């Protein structure tokens, strides 16, 4: 019971103490503080709502920009796909075009070997032949007999005289040279039209080449444009000649390319032999500060050596010897007391490896010839192989074949026309190249003497086609059909064909002049031939035509 009363009293006391009105002053601000808190809570709620709205707007903007980027990416992807499809079609079209062009060129190059299938196919001649009166067989035969055939004996006598004098001159040259320091000169060889028996226009000029080699212990290492290294188009047909020691590797010893320490020595080369003074290389006719043979230095050396040799033997002869051309090292002229003269070329050359291809120091210049890249670039001549090829083919042709006659007549006509209208880009070498291609393309029986007229027409048609296309390929370079009997170097057979008419592409004025001269020669052909032909009665001419039919 007392415990219960105590609990009741404690509860009443606690209620009285915690009543709000019991301490009015201390608890009078409670209502005011509550309203302020509520107001702050409302303001906070409003700010949170505004922040939520701002965030929602930002999210919406981001979603819109993301959608715009995705749409733009889709457009770009579609455009890329369209571009790829267009590029693929463009590339495919270009490939088809290139294949067609390559097929056309191969077709043309394959067909140029089959020129003139019939003797009377004048219908295939180009516009240049329309209205041209081509000489018949009787007129051509009379012209050849009267104007050209008589020069054969003169050429033989001149060759014999020049070769004998050249051998004597070279023997004297060897005697005046220092065998330990000067170049070693070998025997000369005859090349060109005089030794292929088709030279027709005077003055007759014999072309002799003289191989030479460096003194021991040096040797020549030759490099051509088709040996692997890249050569620009204007250097095709050229090569360089490096003067090296015979015991030196072609690529050079590593001691020349690596700085060895002061306490290290090369076991192959001593310190003296590894460094060559520039004066020593200049004595070996090299370009300044290089090991490459200089054609200009060779020209000076050869002219001085020939002059010394002539001074030694001049008392044996009753004529004078002089240089006829300043820009050619061996253009010599013999002057007799009677006033007559004989010209011949004695040109130094370097043999390419163990073949009969030669680097020639100075090639006879023509209006079509391009400038030599530098004096260390040497032109390659295949004249020895050209002479051998003509001799080889001649053995398979009928007796008195007309191949040489065709070349002689064409050379005469072109030379006569150039004397009237001025020089053109065509040279006798171009005409000979045409003949070489036709000799390889046509069977032997097509060169019978009675087919002179048809073969001459073939040469003119071939030449007209080449001029039209500005393409006349070198006969040996890139020709895989060269007879194996010639022993021609395989490196040149596998090379890219060399276009002898490439300068026509770069020099349009010269091309126009050459084409005009060719057309003028065709129009004047009958007049030029008749000028040197005896009169042939009409009845005789008709009889020959009936026999040919």
TrEMBL record:
Pfam families in UniProt: Mab-21_C
GO molecular function: protein kinase inhibitor activity
InterPro entries on file: ITPRIP-like, Mab-21_HhH/H2TH-like, MAB21L/cGLR
Signal peptide, first to last residue: 1-20
Span of domain Mab-21-like HhH/H2TH-like: 404-477
Compartments where found: Cell membrane; Nucleus outer membrane
Membrane-topology annotation of the record: Single-pass type I membrane protein
Principal subcellular localization: membrane
Domain of life, source organism: Eukaryota
Zinc keyword on record: no
Its biological purpose: Enhances Ca(2+)-mediated inhibition of inositol 1,4,5-triphosphate receptor (ITPR) Ca(2+) release.
Protein name, as recorded: Inositol 1,4,5-trisphosphate receptor-interacting protein
Organism: Malurus elegans (Red-winged fairywren)
